[in-house]
Write a structure and sequence with these properties.
Helices cover 0% and strands 40% of the residues. By secondary structure, the protein is an all-beta fold. It has one domain: Sandwich (Immunoglobulin-like). The strands form two sheets. A four-stranded antiparallel β-sheet has the order 1-2-6-5, with no helix packed on it.
Length: 146
């Protein structure tokens, strides 16, 4: 039914809703999982344990600028915490190695042999975390040929 026009009264324009207005995505804090890969190594005659870690965001872009407080790691359930002598070295200035870090545990116990699992967890924020497992195969002295 059509509206009647009343003399002396102005009609009020009606708002037409457009489907795109008010539907824009709200900005969010950067979130999403971190892609973490890790590879451990020990060197003969060296008492350090070195775990190389690569950190990428969920889009595959290198995550740089991480510090010791962003990393936690465990060896067979043993946590390398604040009181341990581990430190973090970021590999910087080398093309292709962006987002690479080395976790170094000085004076690592060389006791025991076999396959030793390590778990590394990286937390850039509460919403941006990731983790990776790596294994080191340790062979007792005398079984190597060098």
């Amino acid at each position: 039914m059509a509206k009647k026009k009343v003399p002396g009264r102005k009609s009020t324009p009606t708002k037409k809703r457009t489907p795109d207005v008010g539907k824009a995505d709200k900005p969010t804090v950067a979130s999403g999982p971190l892609q973490v890969s890790a590879q451990g190594a020990i060197f003969k005659g060296d008492d350090r344990l070195i775990v190389s870690v690569r950190v990428l965001d969920d889009a595959g872009k290198a995550v740089t600028g991480l510090k010791k407080q962003h990393f936690k790691w465990w060896q067979l359930g043993h946590f390398f915490g604040e009181f341990s002598s581990f430190f973090v070295v970021e590999i910087e200035g080398i093309a292709g190695l962006e987002g690479m870090y080395q976790l170094v545990q000085a004076n690592w116990s060389t006791v025991g042999n076999g396959t030793i699992p390590f778990y590394v967890r990286v937390a850039k924020s509460a919403l941006r975390t990731g983790g990776a497992m790596t294994f080191i195969v340790k062979v007792r002295e005398g079984l190597d040929t060098n």
